[in-house]
Amino acid sequence: MSTHYSTHIGTDIAYAATLLQGGETVAIPTETVYGLAANALDEDAVTRIFVAKERPFYNPLIVHVPNVEAVRAIVAHIPQAALLLLERFSPGPLTVLLPKKPIVSDLVTAGLPDVAVRIPAHPVALALLRECGLPLAAPSANPFGYVSPTSAEHVLKMLAGRIPYVLDGGACDAGIESTIIGFPGGVPTVYRKGVITIAMVEAVVGPVARGSSAKPVAPGMLASHYSPHTPLIITEDVDESLQENLGKVVGLMTYNAFSELLAESRQILLCTNDDFATAARNLYAALHDMDTRGYELLIAKKLPQSGIGAAINDRLMRAALK
Ligand code: TXA
Ligand code: MG
To answer: Would you say residue 39 has pLDDT above 80?
Structure first.
């Protein structure tokens, strides 16, 4: 097993498929974030994902498939609510937790009875899934704990030398990870918020429960995650936080309007006019960018705590924890 690679970047889907069929990892574009993919049915290949990311084995992986038929091939049963959600939101940024068939290894699910499954909406991801004919396990393509990548360049910056190939599909459209929904006791339960909001899910299946990230049902929902190296604080009052940190070299991520208390060159506007889907699309690129500027502190303005705003705040809060 090679552990040091000369990492190539390109748009060759057939080459990516050949690598995956040969048990290698490939970074792939999805509509949410880039994933680090490998054959979900090959334990050695899946192990390579954990090694490249330095990801702990207790953290289970999402398996990507091209259609509902391919979901059926790896799960024992699809509850009615899950089927309704898959029909409404797939392909798309939705992950469902379903009872696994024995062919799915415990390495993928970290020993849990459910496997996380998703049908991504990115045309390159779908073309690759069809071409290679394999279910692909793929966590976000970042070193464990760091900010997720939303471009091929982000992946290359973080994983060069650790993987053979980055399949470039351009910038990710949604920008934050998929909404994760499980069905414990038959009750639809949201474990991770995303651009498919709780309101959108409830419009299809009725009231949902909220899975606490503190519970070990989703071992990967760790409190600290998505973290830049530079310390980050979240605030509702940007100007007050800037005043409190006058002695520091600060970068600000805000939305709608720049603060007048800081040079605009040190600020990134995630969106204007409360367009929070755009804020989600820009979030990780802003964090990657800000984290290379040598600032002593990053300040992020908290978004309104509903819909996509809540999903973004969730990432910011985890990014702020050390
Ligand atoms: O949008 C996404 O979901 C991206 C793209 C690449 O598809 N993937 C992604 O993977 O965000 P990752 O590994 O960074 O996050 C997967 C999350 C983890 O928090 C993990 O704990 C949870 O899914 N998960 C996976 N399998 C699970 C299972 N069987 N039960 C509970 N949680 C699970
Ligand atoms: Mg991740």
So the answer is: yes
Give yes or no for residue 219 CB within 6 A of ligand 1.
yes
Tokens of 212: 């606490």
Task: Calculate how far, in angstroms, residue 85's C-alpha sits from the geometric centre of ligand 2.
Answer: 22
Percentage of residues in the chain with pLDDT exceeding 70? Answer: 95
Rounded-to-integer distance, Cα 247 and Cα 243, Å: 9
> Which residue has the least CA distance to atom 32 on ligand 1?
218
Q: Is 78 in the pocket of ligand 1 (CB under 6 A)?
A: no
Full DSSP string of 240-296: HHHHHTTTS-EEEEESSS--TTS-GGGEEE--STT-HHHHHHHHHHHHHHHTTTT-S
Sign of CA pseudo-dihedral 36, 42, 44, 47: positive
Q: Is the pTM of the predicted complex or chain greater than 0.85?
A: yes
Q: Find the length of the chain.
A: 322
Q: Say yes or no: CB of residue 178 within 6 Å of ligand 1.
A: yes
Phi and psi for 4 in degrees, rounded to 5? -120, 125
Q: What is the pLDDT of residue 85?
A: 98
d(CA 164, CA 142): 15
